[in-house]
Amino acid sequence: MTARVDNILRLADETLTAGDLVVGQDLFTIRRSETIGTAVRELQERQFIWAPVTDVPIAADLSLDDARGADPGSLVEEVARPIPPEMRLPESAPLTQVIDHVRRHRVGYVSHGQHIVTFADVQHPLVGLYAFGLVLSLESGIDELIAEWMVDWRSKLTDARMAKVMEVYDARRRADADVGLRACLNLNDRLTIVRKTDEMVRALGFGSKSQFRTWSKTLGALRDCLGHGSTVLTAIPDVGEALAFLDDLRLRTHVLWGRLRYGHDLVDAQVSSVIEVEVDGTWTQVVPTQDRVASIGSQDSGLDRWSGPEPRYKITASNPGGVVLDADRNARRRGELADELHRRGLEVQPARAGSGDHWEAGYLVTGGDRPTMCDVGATFGQLSIFEVGDSELRVVDSATREVVARRPLDG
After folding, report:
1. In a 3-state reduction of DSSP, which class is residue 273?
2. 17 C-beta neighbours (distance < 10 Å), count
3. Last residue within a domain, chosen from 92, 117, 142
4. In terms of domains, do 135 and 257 share one?
5. Torsion of CA 251, 108, 333, 381, to 10 degrees
6. What is the C-alpha to C-alpha distance for residues 21 and 398, in angstroms, rounded to an integer?
7. How many structural domains is the chain composed of?
8. Is residue 246 part of a domain?
9. Based on the domain organization, do 184 and 308 belong to the same domain?
10. Do 243 and 103 meet the contact criterion of CB atoms below 8 Å apart?
11. Segment (H or E) for 72
């Protein structure tokens, strides 16, 4: 079952592209030889705040603000600004990349600038199809997690709701449908089961039930609107909030499927990690390699340099659920993590964990406890965190708060 439903997420992530979004687009442009006065009138008549300048390929655009501040008799080509490389998108760019780009830049130039994507494209039917794919993938992932964790999901629903589920199940069975009882749940049922199961709340990347409750209301509204043929903006009218929610939904779905797909493999890799802290621009090992621990013993491991209560925790915000984000975005998430740790009154030290060519930056935290740090890890989409004791390194599942792997730090 997992391999089949996991394809939904892959299709949502990879199938639709920027090229699909701009098919048949009739792009309005401003001629280079026009006067600024004429350009201002054209932009105002169309209620545009900017427009690309006619060229092949398009290389510049003109904003209404720039035009209003210029001499009305000057030419467009004298005021227009060159389009920087970071504003361009290839036709093959997946819709996930397009959404992230538009969130950051508001506009993207596709196919050598002959087409554009903007905030307005959030209401495009293909964006609705993409969002619907994410919702279906999330629902499938919840079903898989219920099965893997053997959650007693029936006890989470009311008797009246279970009776309805049984009605659906019986109807499908009479039609000779090969269906299990869990497949007869609807989205609200699944969200109810998650809300009543602490570990599942954290598995979806939430540090508290209140956060999940607010988010699930938006998700339910989005699912209902898409199911009735409406657009994303019907459920979330603010374009910026709509784009942010789609991005958040994608990451949370990846966090869930990351746990289902390769959670155990990640644990095996993490338990052998080196942990280093940054001191005066130099990385110093706090938890060395297993081979080095065996040869030097715990007294030289580096832990004696750090005073404070035990255990300490190494936590990151990078690459949630195994989704590899660009360096800038990981850096922004790391800053948000630092703010959250400081808000909780915890001591933090810049740190990184990994080995060889792969390292993930984050913080070594003093003064926290396991439930708190697991909640923070879950909030930032981390499947697990490191717990560093006097004599061993422990990998702790952020959702279940259980130690899933450990290795000694004494020789």
Report:
1. coil
2. 19
3. 117
4. yes
5. 0
6. 38
7. 3
8. yes
9. no
10. yes
11. none
Q: Are residues 305 and 384 in the same domain?
A: yes
Q: Which two tokens stand for residue 79?
A: 């005021």
Report yes or no on 11 lying in a domain.
no
Any long-range contacts for 325-328 (C-beta under 8 Å, 24+ apart)? none
Residues 394 and 341 in one domain: yes
Estimate the crossing angle of helix 159-174 against helix 187-195, to 10 degrees. 140
Predicted model pTM: 0.84
Same domain, 315 and 392: yes
User: What CA–CA distance (Å, rounded) separates 331 from 99?
Assistant: 19
Say how far residue 282 (Cα) sits from the centre of its chain: 31
Structure tokens at 84: 């920087």
Q: How many Cα atoms occupy the beta-carbon half-sphere of 338 within 13 Å? A: 13
Instruction: Give yes or no: residues 140 and 198 share one domain.
Output: yes
Q: Tell me, rounded to whole angstroms, the distance of Cα 249 from its chain centroid.
A: 7
Residue 395 CB coordination number (10 Å) = 23
Can you tell me the distance from the alpha carbon of 41 to that of 19, in angstroms, rounded to the nearest whole number? 31
Cβ atoms 320, 255 nearer than 8 A = yes
> Which residues form the domain of 42?
18-117
Residue where a domain terminates, one of 87, 117, 147:
117
Are the CB atoms for 309 and 368 separated by under 8 Å? no
Going residue by residue through the chain, which has 411 residues, state the pLDDT in tens, using 9 for 90 and above. Answer: 444 556 778 888 888 999 999 998 888 999 999 999 999 999 999 999 999 999 888 899 999 999 999 999 999 999 999 999 999 999 999 999 999 999 988 899 997 778 999 988 999 999 999 999 999 999 999 999 999 999 999 999 999 999 999 999 999 988 877 888 999 999 999 999 999 999 999 999 998 899 999 999 999 999 999 999 999 999 999 999 999 999 999 999 999 998 888 766 666 667 888 899 988 888 888 876 554 333 333 334 444 444 445 789 999 999 998 888 889 899 999 999 999 999 999 999 999 998 878 889 999 999 999 999 999 999 999 999 999 988 889 999 999 999 989 888 865
Tell me, yes or no, whether 266 lies in a domain.
no
Residue 228 shares a structural domain with residue 107: no
Would you call 288 helix, strand, or coil by DSSP?
A: coil
State how far the Cα of 407 lies from the Cα of 411, in Å rounded to an integer: 11
Q: Is 51 within the bounds of a domain?
A: yes
- Whether residues 278 and 402 fall in one domain: yes
φ and ψ of 347, to 5 deg:
-85, 135
